Amino acid sequence: MSLPTTNSPDTTLDSLGSAAARATLRAHPSRGYVQIEPPVEPMPRLSKELGGAVELFVKRDDLLPLAGGGSKTRKLDYLVQQALDSGADTLVTCGAVQSNHCRLTASAAAREGLGCHLVLEERVAGSYSPEAGGNNYVFGLLGAKTQVVPLGGVDAAVAALMEELKAAGATPYYIPGGGSNALGALGYARAAISVVEEARKAGRPFDAVVLCSGSGGTHAGMLTGMRACGDQTKVYGVSVRFDAAKQKSRIEAQYKECAKLFGNEAPEEDVVIIDSQVGPGYSLPTPEMRSAVEAFAKLEGILLDPVYTGKGAAGLLQLVREGAFQPGARVLFLHTGGAPSLFHYQPVPE
Ligand SMILES: *Cc1c(COP(=O)(O)O)cnc(C)c1O
User: Fold this and answer.
1) What residue stretches are annotated with the Tryptophan synthase beta chain-like PALP domain (predicted)?
2) Ligand 1 centre and the CA of 169: distance in Å?
């Protein structure tokens, strides 16, 4: 399939959202990686296992295009277009040692014929191994160059790398960690508008949305898109790294920036964070994550990942068990991908 060229009319937008929301989306060209919306699927066996009072659904963003799929494809759809429009020949980004975002950035770079440099942050001391499988194996396979820095070493390494590339005559474009700035989050605003519209067309809106809250573009973008089409559904962000207070302020800042693109406010009370699934820290396993990964696999045939969606789904199960949702509620879990790292961590059985 040939991708649309820069600034070609994006026909997938024709029926999306209000005229004002469409105008905002049109003002920011995307590369066209997301031509077909992944399905929203019911999860009847998991719903039944949890008592049957709540109807659970999953948005299959793990099935998005680019190598291995996942949420970052939606952000890269906008970011890579901007990189190409600015004449870049090299993508530079950063992430953890099993970063899904780095995998997908490397995949986009390969597809566009761009160079790709990844700065990998060893957030857990001793967690990096050059021989590691999962995403680490795929970085090199996709042609990306990698360097590893200790926790907190990213900014200095990226600055040095950008200078080095420029000195060598390259034109690098920097994509922030997780692709999380207002432009990247726009990919999720668009996704949210599409989810809301589809549910409205079917006459069955959702009563709550549960997603992982990491670098924040997903959470901020979903809130922006839902509110931009007048949907006030509560969004629960399950933190995978920081405590609730810190994560809330990180999301509020990004939500403001993204909502501004639509000319909208970003009410602080929209940002709801659950931090009970972080456990000992980012990427470190918890019993709740393990049992959520097992439940999705055995009951619905869906692979989660141990770092993000396993903990996000553990948050979903916790909310259902605690009675956070009314009987009969329709709850949507956003599957943001990540399964390739499952083949490295193998969290189940304990
Ligand atoms: C990056 C990522 C997230 C978190 O999304 P953010 O926009 O960074 O908050 C969730 N799930 C998976 C699989 C990811 O790779």
Assistant:
1) 39-337
2) 33
